[in-house]
Amino acid sequence: MNLMLIVDDNVEFRNMVSDYFTDLGFTVEIADNGREGLAKARAIRPDIILLDVMMPDIGGIEVIRQLQAEDETRSIPVLVITGTFFDKNMSELFRQEPNCREFMSKTVELSYLQKKVESLFKKK
Length: 124
What we know:
alpha/beta; 5-stranded parallel sheet; 5 helices
């Protein structure tokens, strides 16, 4: 079973993506902020993490760097998904982190997101 962790403070987006991947057979865990996301990542060691950029306590870049710094979470692939306007510099900042596999907008079609997630599982 594929275990996904969604770390996002937007309830509607989180629930929509969770429902979509649950229907595909994924086990989905949810964290509504960066601090909770880090704790859950350490505890459950998901196969993949979908991570928001802007969150109220710890932002996405800090989360991804803390995941990368720890042996237990370093190899977990992270797809960064943002709802805020981002420029090329922000995308490049995230892409410098080895565990960041993709940087995309929340306006992405769920079928496209599904293809990205599935391609990461094929690489394992």
